[in-house]
Amino acid sequence: MTVIVLSGPVGAGKSSLTAILSKYLGTKPFYESVDDNPVLPLFYKDPLKYTYLLQLFFLNTRFHSIKKALSDDNNVLDRSIYEDSLFFHMNADIGRANDLEVQTYDELLESMMKELERMPKRHPDLLVHINVSYETMIRRIQKRGRSYEQLSFDPTLEDYYKRMLRYYEKWYDDYDYSPKMMIDGDHYDFMASESDRTEVLDQITQKLKQVGKLPKNWQAGEIATESIEFSS
Ligand SMILES: Nc1ncnc2c1ncn2[C@@H]1O[C@H](COP(=O)(O)OP(=O)(O)OP(=O)(O)O)[C@@H](O)[C@H]1O
Ligand SMILES: Nc1nc(=O)c2ncn([C@H]3C[C@H](O)[C@@H](CO)O3)c2[nH]1
């Protein structure tokens, strides 16, 4: 039984790969709350006002997802709870949260992580990180088309996204809750190219095998994107 979490910046391809991978492995996908998230558009419109609320919203929904995923023990999640702190501290560093909010958030996160430590399975079996350049990130954000994420909606998002990529570099280097691997999201178009998709899935199954988490009787599932339901 395997729990895999995806990580990566906005538009990296986490939800897309979650759909593909869960179908391939025959496990259940978990998606972060985006289209049904009432705070996200407010945050992009007025980040100073809504950073703290958005962070609490995400922390709460992700905590429930990861708890469920760790108890079901056969899932792929499209973002890890370990990235929440990256987002919050990045926003705090640009003045969108005060010291008291940072302290309160950090204490809350620590309590939640302690609660996860008490689960029979404490951490995912594998982190799959999708690495993308700024150019790829922007192309994908445009392709997906959420209005509030576009540079035309707020030109300061350029700095925000570039900063996010820098924070993710360090975050990935420091991550040590589980085995981890990186997918080259610039190089592989796992949406349109079947051979790229096969290559990426192969890299992930090799890693699962290496860490002893590929079930012995496992058979590859369907990987044609037409047969996959994408959700984000
Ligand atoms: N490797 C890829 N090659 C080409 N297009 C891709 C790739 N990965 C994702 N896309 C496209 O990029 C867009 C963003 O992908 P997706 O929604 O999966 O990103 P995400 O990492 O889940 O983003 P977010 O965290 O912001 O929700 C989608 O339109 C998807 O079809
Ligand atoms: N501020 C902030 N904190 C988070 O924890 C967080 N998690 C996701 N997101 C934003 C990125 C995408 O626009 C969109 C989908 O990932 O939601 C976040 N934004």
Written account of the structure:
With 232 residues, the chain is of the alpha/beta class. It has a single domain, classed as Rossmann fold. 51% of the residues lie in helices and 9% in strands. It is built from eight helices and five strands; from the N terminus they run βαβααβααβααβα. It has a five-stranded parallel beta sheet with strand order 2-3-1-4-5, sandwiched between helices. Helix 4 runs antiparallel to helix 5. The longest helix has 26 residues. The radius of gyration is 17 Å and the shape is globular. The two termini are 24 Å apart. The protein binds adenosine-5'-triphosphate and 2'-deoxy-guanosine. The site of adenosine-5'-triphosphate has 19 residues, from helix 1 and helix 6.
Number of domains: 1
What is the typical, i.e. mean, pLDDT? 93
Order of helices and strands: EHEHHEHHEHHEH
What percentage of the residues does DSSP assign to strands (E)? 5-15%
Q: Extract low-pLDDT stretches.
A: none
Domain Deoxynucleoside kinase: 4-206
Binding site for substrate: 32, 44, 55, 79, 84, 149
GO molecular function: ATP binding; deoxyguanosine kinase activity
Binding site for ATP: 8-16, 140-144
